[in-house]
Write a structure and sequence with these properties.
Blueprint: H1 5-16, H2 53-56, E1 62-68, H3 75-82, H4 86-99, E2 110-116, E3 121-129, E4 132-139, E5 142-149, E6 153-162, H5 167-173, H6 178-187, E7 203-213, E8 216-230, E9 233-241, E10 247-250, E11 270-273, E12 276-280, E13 287-290, E14 293-296, E15 302-304, E16 309-317, E17 321-327, E18 332-339, E19 341-342, E20 351-352, E21 357-360, E22 371-378, E23 381-383, H7 401-419
Length: 427
């Protein structure tokens, strides 16, 4: 029997991914042209009796998937993103209609599914609140949906990895959830431009929360600490919430990493066109200034406000298509063009917070494809946001230095442990 190499490789990788190593996973690669001192090799041909791998593929390889609920999500869309097959999705929807408890999907919360390689749903969990867990368990060919009060157990998870081709490729290889990877990119966005500064060989280490019930993962929580080494320069961050409720990420020495403005309105995307005094317009066909930065992203990608602001304009405007202009603390304002739609409540005079979703990527106006046209304005004059030295936010209150040190020291020690540990995972 011939077994497809990609299928065989995938199953081997799935098996290896289940092997724990001190609770830590990392990914590594070997750079091209690296000299290797290998012993003399000889070819040995031997006939082996291999098991029937196709016969083994009855869903025996399964995995956990976590998906965040967004506005407009329904149970069918979530099951599709979890990789659940059509038949099991139909059966769970029937069970949900009978129980009625799965009809309350709250944006921002997550669902967790254990799914076989064949798309068979083995277990489905939805944390309706921090005290209420909804579980759908397979019962023969159907599903039984239960609602129960829970007390979650919090555990720190340690992960590390190395950039080979992309940030999310490396975090996937290290088994880091996408929401934690995005949070890491956000934390270091003031010092690292993840659109253009990444280098092959850059490394990261992470400590984050995970919540369990009866030994089973229910949801991931907050990023607690992170280290990212970019082009040989090491950056560290630890999370701290002071007694007054102010929270954020700081260096181990107490410097606030949050800036007054985010460097990018999209957490991770590709720059398709930079700021320029002269470029050939892709639609109009003649040279003119491009006084903004274009970020290529799929239609519907959420766009964030780069700082606290008041909505100055929200509507359709010439070649911008659907446009939002935000007025920040004088003399700054920002503009976001070509949106497919606006977020709820984006009216003139509305207040928005830094990081709040204000709209979604589209291709309205003069656009050849879905992207965000972003402008940073000083006294209403467009300025290249990629070259600005943006100021930091509030400093750590001196009254809480000792409390901060008590939190930061053990987290820094865990990052040091990750950096000093030789770990490997198959690519």
């Amino acid at each position: 029997m011939q077994v497809a190499k990609p299928l065989l490789r995938k199953r081997v990788l799935l098996f290896l991914a289940t092997l724990p190593l001190l609770g830590v996973v990392a990914a590594f690669g070997i750079a091209p042209d690296t000299p290797l001192d290998l012993p003399e090799q000889a070819t040995v041909v031997e006939t082996l009796d291999l098991p029937n791998i196709e016969a083994m593929d009855s869903g025996s390889f399964d995995f956990w998937r976590e998906e965040r609920i967004t506005h407009g999500d329904t149970l069918p869309t979530l099951l599709d993103r979890l990789g659940v097959g059509n038949e099991d999705a139909r059966k769970l929807l029937q069970a949900a209609r009978e129980s009625k408890v799965l009809g309350r999907l709250t944006p921002g919360r997550t669902v967790l599914g254990r799914v076989s390689g064949a798309g068979q749903l083995l277990l489905f969990r939805y944390l309706l609140s921090d005290q209420t867990l909804i579980t759908a368990r397979r019962s023969g060919n159907d599903f039984q949906v239960t609602e129960e009060a829970v007390t979650l157990e919090s555990r720190p998870i340690l992960r590390s990895g190395e950039i080979i081709s992309s940030l999310y490729g490396a975090t996937d290889a290290a088994d880091v959830p996408d929401n934690i990877a995005s949070e890491m990119a956000e934390v270091f966005s003031g010092d690292i431009d993840f659109h253009k500064d990444l280098r092959k060989g850059d490394r990261f280490s992470l400590v984050y929360e995970a919540f369990y019930f009866q030994g089973q993962l229910v949801k991931t929580g907050r990023l607690l600490a992170a280290e990212f080494t970019n082009a040989g320069k090491r950056h560290q961050a630890v999370y701290f919430r002071d007694p007054q409720g102010k929270e954020g990420y700081f260096t181990p020495e107490g410097q606030n990493l949050k800036r007054a403005f985010l460097k990018s309105p999209l957490p991770y995307s590709r720059i398709s066109s930079g700021f320029s005094q002269s470029r050939k317009h892709p639609i109009l066909g003649y040279q003119r200034a491009h006084k903004g930065v274009d970020y290529a992203a799929p239609t519907g990608t959420p766009i964030r406000a780069v700082a606290d602001a008041v909505v100055q304009f929200s509507g359709r405007k010439n070649g911008y298509g659907n446009l939002i202009v935000l007025r920040h603390k004088a003399p700054f304002s920002t503009a976001y063009g070509h949106l497919s739609r606006f977020a709820k409540g984006m009216k003139r005079g509305s207040r928005v917070s830094q990081g709040e979703v204000i709209g979604y990527v589209g291709a309205t106006g003069l656009a050849t494809g879905p992207h965000l046209h972003y402008e940073f304005r000083i006294n209403n004059v467009q300025t290249n946001p990629l070259t600005l030295n943006l100021p930091h936010s509030y400093p750590l209150d001196t009254r809480y230095r000792s409390q901060f040190a008590a939190v930061a020291k053990p987290l820094s020690n865990q990052l040091d442990l990750l950096r000093g540990t030789n770990l490997a995972a198959f690519d």
